[in-house]
Design goal:
13 strands; globular
Length: about 375
């Protein structure tokens, strides 16, 4: 698949009065996430088109790509990380993402200031003023000699008199990446860190350019969407994006509640009657997060079963007809599925067939 599924609207500026139904938004997201038809694009381009991969749990990136890319093998992603074509670091929403080397600096420039302000504000309430910026010189000096383990870096902060909370903030002032093989399928504990500007070629990117890139990447991967949804995905105040939105030429629509939706000028909208095949999603798949709630890919009655205090890491899920229909787990050499409700026989066969293919992928 070289592009989106669907036909472009003849009105490339959109129609501000046109209402897009929830099903239209659902199929648009599935198509742009390569969950209707798997991508035949190169691996790095596929990752860019879906807006990166959230990877607090290292295996998530691999399963996410298996569901989205044709003929994907685990070694393809590990090799891309080792060759520095894909970078893993703390970015959007201050969570771990795998993104292309090109996207890394653009995303970072967009979210850096907002992430620092958020951390100062939250930390001040519980711990008072913690001057993490003061640790930047010693941290950079340590990492300049090469990658270091997280335990060693934490000890460095402790020796200099910083409270333990400083570890959660230092990465917002020192651009660090997870160095493979840590954070990969075979070594899932991501505890080896290096300086970003020694691992991936530095790029002078302004915050303005980064924000424009965030808007385009989000709409290309999850649109049409509201300004707040774009901001929620990036983890920045929505007011930060308003000037950026005004500069861009975007299509405009409405959802069924009357909210304005933005989209890229020539991004096609998929026929809402397009069949959606069974797909398996990993832990923390971005399509299920609140910013994409408009699409109902995760029905609200099932949200507490996927995200709750007992499973704060979320759980892997599978889709039937474009919506979460149950959970899955790999155990004992096979993928076991647990539907939320009884499935029609045809859907159950499709789920079982896809589960067998995913079991093979794990071996």
């Amino acid at each position: 698949m070289s592009g989106f599924i669907g036909k472009p609207s003849p009105d490339y500026l959109g129609n501000p009065s046109r209402v897009l139904t929830t099903r239209e938004l659902n199929r648009a997201l599935l198509a742009r996430q390569f969950l209707l038809e798997r991508s035949s694009l190169p691996l790095v381009q596929t990752i860019e088109r879906v807006g990166g991969l959230q990877t607090q749990y290292a295996a998530s990136g691999y399963v996410g790509l298996w569901s989205r890319k044709r003929n994907f093998r685990r070694d393809m992603l590990t090799t891309a990380l080792e060759q520095r074509r894909v970078i893993q670091g703390t970015l959007l929403r201050s969570t771990i993402h795998m993104v292309s080397a090109r996207d890394y600096w653009l995303f970072l420039s967009a979210v850096r200031r907002g992430r620092q302000e958020w951390w100062r504000r939250v930390t001040r309430k519980g711990f008072g003023e913690v001057d993490v910026a003061a640790a930047v010189p010693i941290f950079r000096e340590e990492l300049a000699a090469g990658p270091r383990r997280a335990a060693d870096l934490k000890q460095l902060l402790a020796r200099r008199g910083f409270p333990s909370i400083a570890w959660n903030g230092i990465g917002l002032w020192v651009d660090m990446i997870r160095v493979p093989p840590s954070g990969t399928w075979d070594q899932r504990k991501a505890d080896l860190y290096g300086l970003a500007d020694t691992w991936v070629r530095p790029a002078a990117v302004t915050e303005s350019a980064g924000l424009e890139h965030v808007v385009r990447r989000y709409l290309g991967a999850f649109g049409p969407a509201t300004v707040r949804e774009i901001a929620d995905w990036a983890g920045i105040p929505h007011t930060t994006l308003l000037t950026t939105i005004d500069r861009l030429s975007l299509r405009r629509f409405r959802d069924e509640k009357g909210k304005e939706l933005l989209d890229l000028p020539r991004a096609p909208l998929t026929d809402p009657e397009t069949p959606a095949p069974v797909r398996f999603l990993p832990t923390w798949d971005a399509t299920l997060l609140v910013h994409a709630r408009r699409t109902q890919i995760l029905p609200e009655e099932y949200r507490p079963l996927v995200f709750n205090t007992k499973t704060p890491h979320s759980v892997p899920t599978f889709l039937v007809d474009g919506a979460v229909a149950g959970t899955w787990r790999y155990e004992g050499g096979r993928v076991e599925v647990k539907p939320f409700e009884p499935l029609p026989k045809a859907a159950r066969r499709e789920v079982d067939d896809e589960a067998k293919r995913l079991s093979t992928f794990h071996k």
